[in-house]
Amino acid sequence: MKQNKILLQVIVGFLAVILLFSCEEKKTKEIVAPVANATTDSFTFWTWTSANAEKENAAYQEEFAKYKANGITDVLINTGTDPKLLSRITPLAKKEGLDVHAWMFTVNRPGDAVAEQHPEWYAVSRDGKSCFDEPPYVGYYKWLCPTRKESKAHILSLVEGLAKVEGVSSVHLDYIRYSDIFLPIGLLPKYNLKQEIELPEFDFCYCDVCVAEFEKEHHKNPRDSENPAIDMEWKQFRLNKVKAIVDEAYEIAHNNNKILTAAVFPYPEMADHMVRQRWDKWNVDKVLPMIYHNFYNEEIDWIGYATGEGVKDLKNSKTELHTGIYVPDMSVSDLEKAILLAKDNGAKGVSIFDGNALTDEQFKVIKKLSQELN
Question: What is the pTM of this model?
Answer without folding.
Answer: 0.90
